């Protein structure tokens, strides 16, 4: 089990502040090799608050990575808006886009994804600064070494090449690299999934410490509910391109309002205090349907144990069930236990 030291949160700052990022009705449609339209992200709206960790959970194929990549404009959204400091980054181009992008970074599951195998660790971490051309080479080297030191990579290790480091060390290097341009938000896409279980806790703790030191916001994407429940302030549950539920992590863990959330939470051993653990295991049967042809009405209905005729006919509204807690299910209140 992963144990992460609880991070003292800036409670007032994370709940009351204006959002730093507002995603409005975001859509990303891919055209497959067969010419079909695949709606990987199909109308999602949420806000990220300064300094918070916004968790996104869901099974593989639900569109989490596509959402993360769209937020940092690694891919172009098909529709909707991504408002960041007054600009719609879904539409920005050229120099203004490059400038905003510095403040929005992403770290991937594969520790090798952002590291050039032919560049030393130091060169890889200094590279974003070299591109921007900030200061002289010596000061850029100094800054890269400081950041590497902060994530636990020594000056001696910094001279090595990626293949000479372990997966955990490389992920630490990626954290350092993502921080070089002082981002305000970092999308973390399954950042500990490829690491040995024994070191995941340490790397997650590092993420939490860095956040506290720098007041960073994270969008923390994972299929592992244990990870998200430890590190997040709020969590969104994603299924087939849409959010099913969104709320403070304690509220969602204590009283999940969507049948899909309950199934997800009962399927994994969530490291929660015993009184919060789900007593009964709800089996999530079958595969996630193809986003090429999602079910009508509620898209979870083909796997929902409570589906009724209405569920096939009407798309459930995205509606509040408690302060700051939203759900898309016609029968959320009557189905939720307790
Ligand atoms: N470049 C692409 N072209 C076509 N389909 C894609 C592309 N990227 C992702 N998809 C599809 O979009 C859906 C969501 O994928 P993804 O965002 O990777 O989900 P997750 O990260 O939740 O596993 C999947 O059905 C996937 O096959
Ligand atoms: S709307 Fe219907 S099918 Fe969808 S989660 Fe609620 S009960 Fe299940
Ligand atoms: Mg993914």
Automatic annotation (TrEMBL):
The answer to whether the entry has keyword Transport is yes
Major subcellular location class: membrane
Q: How does it sit in the membrane?
A: Peripheral membrane protein
Keywords attached to this entry: ATP-binding, Nucleotide-binding, Plasmid, Transport
Q: Where is the ABC transporter domain?
A: 21-265
Domain of life of the source: Bacteria
In which compartments does the protein localize? Cell inner membrane
Molecular functions per Gene Ontology: ATP binding; ATP hydrolysis activity
Biological process annotations from GO? peptide transport; transmembrane transport
A Pfam family it matches? oligo_HPY
Q: Might you report a single GO cellular component term?
A: plasma membrane
Q: What family, per the record?
A: Belongs to the ABC transporter superfamily.
- By what name is this protein known? Oligopeptide/dipeptide ABC transporter, ATP-binding protein-like protein
Organism (species): Tistrella mobilis (strain KA081020-065)
């Amino acid at each position: 089990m992963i144990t992460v030291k609880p991070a003292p949160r800036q409670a007032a700052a994370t709940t009351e502040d204006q959002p730093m990022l507002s995603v409005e009705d975001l859509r990303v449609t891919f055209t497959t090799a067969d010419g079909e339209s695949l709606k990987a992200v199909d109308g999602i709206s949420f806000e990220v608050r300064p300094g918070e960790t916004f968790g996104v959970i869901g099974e593989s194929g639900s569109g989490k990575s596509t959402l993360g990549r769209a937020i940092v404009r690694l891919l172009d959204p098909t529709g909707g808006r991504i408002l960041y400091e007054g600009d719609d980054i879904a539409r920005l181009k050229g120099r203004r886009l490059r400038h905003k992008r510095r403040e929005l970074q992403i770290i991937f599951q594969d520790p090798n994804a952002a590291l050039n195998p032919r560049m030393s660790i130091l060169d890889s971490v200094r590279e974003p600064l070299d591109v921007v051309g900030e200061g002289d080479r010596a000061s850029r080297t100094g800054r890269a070494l400081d950041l590497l030191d902060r994530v636990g990579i020594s000056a001696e290790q910094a001279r090595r090449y990626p293949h000479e480091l372990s997966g955990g060390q490389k992920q630490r290097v990626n954290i350092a690299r993502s921080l070089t341009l002082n981002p305000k938000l970092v999308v973390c896409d399954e950042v500990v999934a490829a690491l040995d279980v024994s070191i995941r806790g340490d790397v997650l703790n590092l993420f939490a410490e860095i956040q506290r030191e720098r007041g960073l916001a994270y969008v923390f994407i994972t299929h592992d509910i244990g990870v998200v429940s430890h590190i997040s302030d709020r969590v969104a549950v994603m299924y087939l391109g849409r959010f099913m539920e969104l709320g403070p992590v304690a509220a969602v863990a204590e009283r999940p309002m969507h049948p899909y959330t309950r199934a997800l939470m009962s399927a994994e051993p969530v490291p929660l205090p015993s009184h919060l653990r789900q007593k009964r295991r709800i089996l999530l049967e079958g595969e996630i349907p193809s986003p090429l042809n999602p079910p009508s009405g509620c898209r979870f209905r083909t796997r929902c144990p409570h589906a009724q005729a209405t569920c096939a006919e009407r798309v459930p509204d995205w509606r509040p069930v408690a302060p700051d807690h939203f759900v898309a299910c016609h029968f959320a209140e009557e189905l939720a236990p307790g």
